[in-house]
Amino acid sequence: MGKGRKEWFDVEVEEELKKICKEISRRYEMHFVEIGTDKDHVHFLIQSVPMYAPSKVARVVKSLTAREILKRFPDLRRKLWGGEFWSNGYYINTVSRRGSEKTIQQYVKAQGHREYEVIHKDQLTLFPVLY
Fold first, then answer.
1. Integer Cα distance of 57 and 45 in angstroms
2. Do the domain assignments include residue 90?
3. Within a domain: residue 122?
4. What total number of domains does the chain contain?
5. Which of 65, 107, 114, 125 has its CA 20 to 30 A from that of 46?
6. Among 81-85, 109-113, 116-120, which is the least confidently predicted range?
7. What's the whole-model pTM score?
8. What per-residue confidence (pLDDT) applies to 113?
9. What does the alpha-carbon distance between residue 5 and residue 33 come to, in Å, rounded to a whole number?
């Protein structure tokens, strides 16, 4: 856990995050393949259209999820470092269907687990993977 960060993802927040991401999928051309949470951070595996720059995808996801989570959980702001839901930075990488998509999906799915090979049946999954 990073310095100054508190653990704030619980089951209730995860479930609301899932609902919010489904709402984002309906409004934007983004498909949340996998979401993995680990108490103080989140990994998303998102499929989107080429016309959306990766920075736009990050901006949309971060702004809408932060706004909605803080609206639905107003007391959460006190638990956050500086009252901010997301940190300023993010990491984006593209994924090839031929090589690394399944590897990345397994990594995201395994967030919060000590061993990446053990995937719990209650892990947060939004949609079945479409191939």
1. 11
2. yes
3. no
4. 1
5. 114
6. 116-120
7. 0.69
8. 55
9. 27
